[in-house]
Amino acid sequence: MGGQYCSGQALKTTIPTPTLLKNEGQDGMLPMYMAGQALSSWDAADNGTNKPSANFCRWDGIACNDRRNPGRVTAIRLRGSDLGGTISPHLGNLTHLQDLDLSQNNLLGEIPVSLGRCTELRTMNLSVNQLSGSLFPDPLGHLSKLKVFNVRHNNLTGVIPMTLSNLTALTNLSVESNYLQGQIPSWLCNLTSLAAIDLALSGLDGQIPGELGKLTKVAFLMIQSNQLEGPVPPSIFNTSFMEHLDLSFNQLSGSLPHDIGFQLPNLKGVFGSAVGCEKAAVK
């Protein structure tokens, strides 16, 4: 691929089909396989030819929508495609990739550091897999155009690293249901485009940083089922776009404002009573 052009054969090597599984033990470049039929258009036996399809832009789950660079892969959307194995580091060669969705599969191993070379990425959805290792490898800090980072329901570990603070275009951050440690970092307030934050069920402790109140565009803040303690910062209730706020199942103290429905006029749901602060009525 050379980082600039992706041939059909190179893309098939990146995400192999059942035909290529024959060579998996020999060349080690086929780390992700298909157990179902979602990629049948990629396979010579299923496309009615004796050769893999040359026009990889027409393969299921692949899009090439960059008019200035025709034939370059801009999207891989293989949600719920019964994929297994590990994510190939060769995906990092798809330098025009904007949308990567490998969610709801059975993928193992770590998030490849090579994805840090995909600097056009806007969306990375690796949720609902069995990925392990670091939550956010340092090279991913180069993805300055990334808007959605979704890795919920995996087996990722470690703290929320400061390299994530480089993603100033981020609007959606979801790390729910992983095995993290440490506190909610106060520098999240620098990601001023954030509209949805989901840190639930992630093993986080400490107090809720008051700096989160600076995120005035946040509509969804889900931090339930952690080990958070202390009072809820009053600044949280300055985010007038808030629609859903879940603080439940922590060790928080105090109570929510009784006029929370007036402070947060767009609020549709608030949860804070199960273990910790008392829930106030939404008016």
TrEMBL record:
By its UniProt entry, which Gene3D superfamilies does this protein fall under? Ribonuclease Inhibitor
* Top-level taxon: Eukaryota
A GO cellular component annotated for this chain's UniProt record is:
membrane
Q: Which keywords does this chain's UniProt record carry?
A: Glycoprotein, Leucine-rich repeat, Membrane, Repeat, Signal, Transmembrane, Transmembrane helix
Please give, as recorded in its UniProt entry, the membrane topology of this protein: Single-pass membrane protein
Xref: PANTHER family: DNA DAMAGE-REPAIR/TOLERATION PROTEIN DRT100, L DOMAIN-LIKE PROTEIN
This protein is called Uncharacterized protein
Annotated source species:
Panicum hallii var. hallii
